[in-house]
Amino acid sequence: MSHSPNPHAEPLPTDQELVLKVIPMPADCNANGDIFGGWVMAQVDLAGAVLPARHARGRFATIAVNEFIFKHPVKVGDILSFFSRVQRIGNTSITVQVEVFAERFSSQGEYMKVTEATLTYVAIDKDGKPRAIPKD
Ligand SMILES: CC(C)(COP(=O)(O)OP(=O)(O)OC[C@H]1O[C@@H](n2cnc3c(N)ncnc32)[C@H](O)[C@@H]1OP(=O)(O)O)[C@@H](O)C(=O)NCCC(=O)NCCS
Fold first, then answer.
1. What digits encode the pLDDT tens for the residues 20-75?
2. I need a surface site. Which of 2, 16, 56, 76 has the fewest CB within 10 A?
3. Residues with C-beta less than 6 Å from any ligand 1 atom
4. Which residue range or ranges hold the HotDog ACOT-type domain (predicted)?
5. In whole angstroms, what is the distance from residue 85 CA to residue 50 CA?
6. Which numbered atom of ligand 1 lies nearest the CA of 124?
7. What CATH number should be reported for the domain holding residue 22?
8. How many independent structural domains does the chain possess?
9. From atom 46 of ligand 1, which residue's Cα is the shortest distance away?
10. Which of 124, 59, 65 is nearest to 95 (CA)?
11. Helix intervals (H) in the chain
12. Ligand 1 centroid – CA 92 distance (Å)
């Protein structure tokens, strides 16, 4: 059987860090049989928190999902790779970009960007109030 090249396949980013890999399971599906968008959003929130954790050095919380784009559906058995980079460090907040690439079950080694998002996290103190991001 001939292997048809995926027109959406693209190289993985080299200017971002791999922060999470996960494989969705049948329990994560929506009524269409694709993966539920809310499950993807939860994984993106976790992946997006990895780089801010290095800077916040303490408690922090998600304050905003500034943008979230589902470019292609995610399927059961896809190997998902989450790449992230810091976009902006403010006084108390850190904004990151997250890009999600799927390696389809039947096309190992080919990557398709399925989701991209921008999220902002805020460092918080013991009372849950914003605190400054450490500078050093
Ligand atoms: C996080 C929280 C303590 C921030 O308090 P706040 O009084 O709303 O925050 P502020 O208005 O002082 O803004 C804090 C920072 O967030 C940024 N910010 C506020 N609203 C924002 C928005 N809609 N988008 C992006 N950044 C935003 C501000 O610019 C500021 O950044 P800076 O200090 O780097 O300039 C509070 O909003 C909160 O507790 N939210 C709930 C968090 C939560 O439960 N998250 C989900 C589970 S983790």
1. 999 999 999 999 999 999 999 999 999 999 999 999 999 999 999 999 999 999 99
2. 2
3. 61-64, 66, 90-93, 120, 122, 124, 128-130
4. 14-127
5. 10
6. 3
7. 3.10.129.10
8. 1
9. 62
10. 65
11. 37-48, 50-56
12. 8
Residue nearest to atom 23 of ligand 1 (CA): 64
What burial class does residue 3 get, using C-beta atoms within 10 Å of its C-beta: 0-12 exposed, 13-18 middle, 19+ buried? exposed
Please report the atom of ligand 1 found closest to the CA of residue 45: 48
What is the model's pLDDT at position 117? 98
- Give which of 79, 49, 50 is closest to 61, Cα–Cα: 49
122 CA → ligand 1 middle, Å:
6
Domain boundaries, position 23: 17-123
How far apart, in whole angstroms, are the C-alpha atoms of residue 117 and residue 99?
7
3-state secondary structure at position 129: coil
Taking a C-beta distance cutoff of 8 angstroms, is the pair 52, 94 a contact? yes
Tell me how far the alpha carbon of residue 20 lies from the centroid of ligand 1, in angstroms: 24
